[in-house]
Amino acid sequence: MDSAELSQRLFTQYLVALEVMEPDRWQKTDLEAVSALFQGLAHEARLALLLGIYQDKSLNDIAEFLDITRGGMQDHLEKLIDCELLYRPEDSGKTYDLTPFGVFFVEFLLSNENMFSDAVGQLRSEEMKVEKAVREVRDKVDEADVPVSEKDWERKIHSKKWEQAWDDIEEILEDDT
């Protein structure tokens, strides 16, 4: 079985396992392989590279957009290759091109960009409300000289924003699926 077939099989297993919520069906090597795909998406420069290459932008155009040097992109390009999202074709005249995984993820992002934007916007809005409320409480706590660690404040903000945003974000994500 070649690398592309193995990657496709593993990704299909991943989707099936998520659908039926039986993660015990996975072997450690399967989880590692699928995890590698998602690592390629875990940086804004790599996302921009995938989107730019998908839209046939030059590497120089992408580097200019990212405000990094062409050399600065090299580590990201190599990571995308290692994660099976990008490859170097030999006969297309292109330096880099997306693998079927790369195309899948880019098209998924593009077809859901409004949903992601709305959901992230909702979360940010709730976070600003919570931060404002926490600042007011924090001022009172500081005046009373009650010791509360910075980590405790951060946890409180994180927890409260999700408690307040959960239903709205869930609705946004369900409406666009």
Order of helices and strands: HHHHHEEHHH
Query: If you average the pLDDT, what whole number results?
Result: 82
User: How many strands?
Assistant: 2
Q: How much is the radius of gyration in Å?
A: 21 Å
Fraction of residues in H or I helices: over 70%
Lateral strand order in the biggest sheet = 1-2
- Poorly predicted regions are none
Outline type: elongated
Structural class: mainly alpha
Give the N-to-C terminal Cα separation. 33 Å
Largest sheet: 2 strands, antiparallel
Number of helices: 8
Walk me through this protein's architecture.
The protein is an all-alpha fold and 177 residues long. It has eight helices and two strands; from the N terminus they run H-H-H-H-H-E-E-H-H-H. The protein has helices spanning 3-20, 28-39, 44-54, 59-66, 70-82, 100-111, 113-143, 150-175, and strands spanning 86-87, 97-98. It has a two-stranded antiparallel sheet with strand order 1-2. Helix 1 packs across helix 2, helix 3 (44-54) runs antiparallel to helix 4 and helix 3 (44-54) packs across helix 5 (70-82). The longest helix has 31 residues, at 113-143. It is elongated. The model has no long low-confidence stretch (mean pLDDT 82).
